[in-house]
Amino acid sequence: MSERYRILLERLDTWFAEATKGREGVIPCRSGCTACCHGPFDISPADAELLQEGLALLPADQRTDIRGRGARLLAKMQALAPGWDAPWDVDELGEEAFDEMAEGLVAEPCPVLGDDGRCRAYAHRPLVCRLIGLPMLTDLGDALPNACPIQEQFPVYAALAAIPFAYEAFAAEELAILAETDGVETTIAAVAAEA
């Protein structure tokens, strides 16, 4: 796993932690909340490596459970996208087809999600998992909306103003790292099925 990628994700985690200080009663993101842990989504090759590393650290019984959950989710995905197969390349499937498949499986839990509602590879979770929960104001002035699927249940949370983040430099560094990383855009289910 690229140490550069790990450091990059730490910058995002630090931003999130700083942005939530003093807002603990406003922002519902916390351990055990699983609102954003459902439905397939794509992850980068760097995220796949990071997740593989985290899954390898788990006890054998948890890896077996995650592997089974990943395989079952992949089977459901393949039923909605016949012919799509390993290496589970999201780009090969196409954005429209992937989005349709994901919409059909929006209620399916992430294979890494434990029965207790906790991510079993939290420290090794993908970038997208770290971005959900707060609106972001990029250094170019673009507002990236909060993608939390339950924010309407928390009006003060849903009304939070976008929080500044040096996103352009972050995105440039991510692209540089991805250019040096082997693999394809894939899904957590594909990585989990090989845990």
The whole-angstrom Rg is 17 Å
Tell me what portion of residues adopts beta-strand conformation: 5-15%
Q: Specify the helix fraction band.
A: 40-55%
Terminal-residue CA separation:
16 Å
Number of E-type strands: 5
**Overall body shape:** globular
Largest sheet properties: 3 strands, mixed
- H/E element order: HEHHHHHEEHEHEH
* Class inferred from helices and paired strands: mainly alpha
What would the keywords be for this entry?
three-stranded mixed sheet; 9 helices; 195 residues; mainly alpha; 47% helix; two-stranded antiparallel ribbon; single chain
Report on the structure:
With 195 residues, this protein is mostly helical. It has one domain. The chain contains nine helices and five strands, in the order H-E-H-H-H-H-H-E-E-H-E-H-E-H. It has a three-stranded mixed sheet, with no helix packed on it. Helix 1 (3-20) packs antiparallel against helix 8 (167-179). It starts with a helix and ends with a helix. The model has no long low-confidence stretch (mean pLDDT 94).
